[in-house]
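Researcher: Structure prediction, please.
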Amino acid sequence: MDCLEFRRLLGSEPRLTDPAARAHLESCPRCQDAYARAQAFESRLAQAMTIAVPEGFADRLLLAQLTGERQRRGSGFRYGWIALAAAAALVVAIGLGRRETTVGRSLPELVIEHVTGEERDALKLVTPVAAADVDRAFADRGVHLASVPAGISYVHKCPVGSFRTVHMVMPRDGQPVSVVYVPHYQAPGLTNFERGALRGREVRIGDGTLVMLGESSGSFDALEHTWRDALEGPAQTAAGSR
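Model: Predicted structure follows.
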């Protein structure tokens, strides 16, 4: 098991019962740090979810039940509908709470968090992957490539927020460039953005949106043209440039 596989498993199973993950943890100081941070987060989460029972809570609960019984006798089904409405409101509130990590956040923001967080070790990879692996990742997302761009050192089908993406790394001029394609999602248009030392571009290509992220935007134009050829075909790219 390598660091990337370990981090993905850690995100879904913080207790790490997998023997291979445990073996990797014992030999990798960086993943030991990641594990320690994950356990600290789980501990804080558990503390936040622990609710102390207030003094006299049992007595108040019994009183509320008795009062409710009296109301039911006097108002028929009205109390039941009030309880049902309250329960429905609670379910909606919980659902909104779960979605708040994605709703209201832009695709570039989610990509930055993904690339610089759990996938940051992918930025160090420089050996090209097989073209068949890239083609297969896109095919699994329902996308046919007219060609496979050269120089992809990492490819993986990653969830980014609620988006199902193909995440790649394409080193350029000695610096890693993250390239994330989101099938079946059309961004408003071409947008260049910055976040600290990072430069990015979000652009519609084919039936989806391509997001590029790196320390320099110098290779973005060439990469955009390359991916238009790959996703739309050279004929379409040439026609669009006229």
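Model: The radius of gyration is 25 Å.
Researcher: Thanks, that helps.
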